[in-house]
Amino acid sequence: MTDQNQLRSRLLDLDNRSYKAYKGIQGRYEFDDFSLSIDRVQGDPFAAPSQLRVFVPPEIAQFPPQLYQSPSRRVALEDYLTRQFSQVARKLSERRGTGKSGTIAIARVGQEILSRTTVLLHDGEVEARFTVGLPARGRSILGRQAATMLCEVIPEIVETALLFEALDADKIQTWVETNEDADFLRSELKKQNLVAFVANNAILPRKSGVDDRPLAANAVPFQSPPELEVSFTCPNGGKITGMGIPPGVTLIVGGGYHGKSTLLRGIEVGVYNHIPGDGREFVITNPDAVKIRAEDGRSIVGTNISPFINHLPQNRSTEKFSTTNASGSTSQAANIIEALEAGAQVLLLDEDTSATNFMIRDRRMQQLIAKEKEPITPFIDKIPQLYSEYGVSTILVMGGSGDYFDVADTVIALDNFSPYEVTAKAKEIAEQYKSDRAPEGGSSFGDITPRIPKPDGIDPSQGKKAVKLKVRDVDEVRFGGEDIDLSAVEQIVDPNQLRAIASALVYAKTAYIDSKRPLPDILDRVMADITAQGLDVLSRYPEGNFAQFRRFELAAALNRLRTLDVV
Questions:
Q1: Angle at Cα 478 formed by Cα 547 and Cα 90, nearest 5°?
Q2: If both were cysteines, with which of 244, 269, 328, 497 could 355 make a disulfide (CB 3.0 to 4.6 Å apart)?
Q3: Which residue ranges of the chain lie beneath pLDDT 50?
């Protein structure tokens, strides 16, 4: 280990030399209040920026142990420090030459509080992982500017963003307590026999479809219907009251633009915690809830969709169904079965993103097209069986078909973003205006058949590289020579989750996919390793751009890999 003066001297000596000479600064350097590790140096000013870490010892950082004494508090503090680092780095970064020269950045974060590899606390020591665009003019090193960045700007970021005395203690306390209360509420859902909870005064509308921050103007605060109101006593915030959604089949109904999908979206992302001020801090959902939608064109490999689709022409089997170009109904059936295979306990659906012929077949259509001529068993006839046989609940936005009143256990109507409990009225209407549909679901839901993936179908290599991964926003990952389209997997909320998922696919292939283990077992083992060893288990090198993901999104990525093969 060398000190900061030696680093400065090295950088000044490199001035005007070829950019590749930067490779010589890799290593660890001791500063007055922290250590700096230069782990990877970019080979070109236009390439991915260099990867660095700082380590601030506990006696310098001085964060009180009560701020990180539990996993929930530690994750919240790490999240807060990530945001502080990002804010200060953006302020101090400046253009210092060609390409990415001069940038200092940490992985971007959104409205969610997630376990990440950006900032880590180890018994009070603070480790921050970030990137630096080492400065150059053309492909010649700007050594003086580099010395300023590494030896002056980075110490200022550390001093401003990573030391307790420089930060707002009250805001940090609010951050960790909010996250802890959210985790407490999620742990209490099952005890209270609920699948989701929406706190009174929550702000559910967002600024726009591309801005996930809360709508500031004219947003209607959420207020639970009296019939569904429940209360919890949180360890920090005390009593919190709001709407509890019980197990079973819940319909969310109402006119267009009255907030049905907005409520479902809040429930959908309620599997994650949110930052103070987001408006959805205490919108809490069963962690095993999965959003389902139709997905025309997706690949399906060896999935047993026979509970929903059977009796295909030419007697084609759907017990191990494969296609490279699924229809809306077929893809929605596969998405449900694959979610159940991965362990989903709650399904979330919106009619706007569902295949109509998958959701309902009314009496008139039944009369025109006989059941033996229709291979699709509509969801309405399977939804009660899912709950009675497998204990899987469903929350469904439905504005167009009152036939679902017959199978609903709870009906919530939205009027100008205000919810009303209307179950009794919906049942009265269903009794008065009978649909006269003939049930088509059979005597049972059917089998959920775990598949066994083959390792040969998971190839992350490209050309001479054994592993080639690239993420494009939160929609797509380049996995070796294949693109995995995840645009329809709506519970991926952060590109850093996708980076971790891509690496988890490689890890799963190396460690557990062996043509013997079923997919649920593989998911169990991968997630258990992450729980025990952290996200770093997914990579041989310290990565600063991983964020926690769920088993369901890992399974979704695997299922959409077009080279996937199963036993």
A1: 45
A2: 328
A3: none
- Encoded tokens for 78: 């790490």
In sequence order, what are the beta bridge partners of 29? Answer: 2, 36
Amino acid at 504: A
Share of the chain above pLDDT 70, in %: 99
Top-level CATH class of 181-449?
alpha beta
What pLDDT score does 95 carry? Answer: 65
Model-wide pTM > 0.85: yes
pLDDT in tens, 363-416: 999 999 999 899 999 999 999 999 999 999 999 999 989 999 999 999 999 999
Residue 486, φ and ψ in degrees, nearest 5: -115, 25
Identity at 87, one-letter amino acid code:
Q
Bridge partner residues of 116 (DSSP): 547
> Which H or E run contains 240?
strand 238-245
User: Sign of torsion, CA 51 156 28 538?
Assistant: negative
Q: Which of helix, strand or coil describes residue 195?
A: coil
CB contact burial 417-438 (16+ within 10 A = b; e otherwise): bbbbbbbeebeeebeeeebebe
CB contact at 8 A, 409 and 433: no
How far CA 530 is from CA of 42, 163, 235, 527, 534, in Å, comes to 29, 28, 27, 5, 5
Domain with CATH 3.40.50.300 in the chain: 181-449
Distances (CA, A) of 512 to 298, 518, 558, 559: 25, 10, 14, 16
> How would you class 145 by CB atoms within 10 Å of its CB: exposed for 0-12, middle for 13-18, buried for 19 or more?
buried
For the record, the structure tokens of 148 come out as 């300023």
Answer yes or no: are the C-beta atoms of 127 and 53 closer than 8 Å. yes
CB 399 within 8 A of CB 351: yes
Q: Burial level of 361, CB count in 10 A (0-12/13-18/19+)?
A: buried
Could you tell me what percentage of the chain is helix, strand and coil, using 3-state DSSP and rounding each to the nearest 5? 35, 20, 40
Contact present, 502 and 547 (Cβ < 8 Å):
no
pLDDT of residue 218: 87
What residues does 113 pair with on adjacent strands? 273
List, for residues 180-230, the tens digit of each pLDDT value. Answer: 999 999 999 999 999 999 999 999 999 998 999 999 888 999 999 999 999
For 207, the enclosing helix (H) or strand (E) is: strand 206-208
Long-range contacts (CB closer than 8 Å, 24 or more residues apart) made by 404-408? 404/251, 404/360, 404/380, 405/251, 405/429, 405/430, 406/380, 406/430, 406/435, 407/249, 407/380, 407/383, 408/249, 408/250, 408/251
Residue 163: Cβ within 10 Å count: 18
